[in-house]
Amino acid sequence: MKMSSRTVRHLAAVMGCAFVFGAAALAVENPTRAIPSGEKQKISGVIQGRDGENMRVRTEDNSVVVVDLTDQTKVEMKKGLFHLSHKKMDVTSLVPGLRVEANGEGNAQGQLVASKVVFDPTSYKASRAIDTRVSPIEAKTNQLETKQGQLENRAGQLENKTGELTTKTGQLADQQKQDEQTVGQVKSSADQANQGVSTVNNRVSTLDDYDQKFAATVYFKVNSAKLSDEAQKDLDDLVQKSKDLKGYMIEVAGFTDTTGSQALNEALSEKRADAVVRYLQMNDVPLRRILAPAGLGESHSVADNHTSSGRKLNRRVEVKVLINKALEGPTSAMNPQTTPPAPAASESH
User: Are 165 and 10 contacting, i.e. CB atoms less than 8 angstroms apart?
Assistant: First the structure.
């Protein structure tokens, strides 16, 4: 039986959509690039995210290289008008959004084992200004989410077209079976395209998508950056809970009340954050596990600075243990711990 011209047009439209979905699926393949084992290379690009010793860097050719940070990795910041000299920095300086140059050698996992990582101060200042918080990848994730929305919209259009084709009357059984088979193939292609986008989108967007696993808040006396016995105990408990975690990072942020000048408060909050970092190091927490400690001064107050009890709550350092969702897996249940109770309301001097 000959097919009608209208039916032929429908089938041609459906097959065209199937081609679009196939092309879309190929366009979002994982761009991760492996470094050959034993091969020395130098890469430059922007840090997408970190999970403990591993740092993902998106290079100039839009591929992603996993950089392995070790205790022997040297971290330096360029200095001077022409950036001819370098200043030694801690590995905690390597924050997401920072533009870096990494020298090293490939390992068996295709990672670049970094011997040296260098960055410029302009890039570092811009990255710290974001709020020194772990944040998801911005542009690439948005592009993939937009692409996924387009594919889902196309899938809806194909389903509507399927309904039109299957409700056609007056066609012979053989012709109807051919139409249904073609539509089934197109839906399968659409599902595969959506699955491809979903898989890649999840893999990329969760690089910097962290969940809070544990948290502790420690408090300080007026104009002091010394850890109290109670604060040390809270930090000890936090370290003990984190020992069995894989790929965790620790975020440290210091704060003050509004007493005194803004400049002095920023410096004091930095000292408080540094005191916590030093104590964590003394408890065998590797420095590479700690995100750049931030002193945020009198910002982000949690209580009224016009009262003694409120100011006491604001003189604090917040410590959070973060886990990359990609490492935890889709079936892991995250149960963030609550912040320890606030100290008593009486003012300490």
Answer: yes
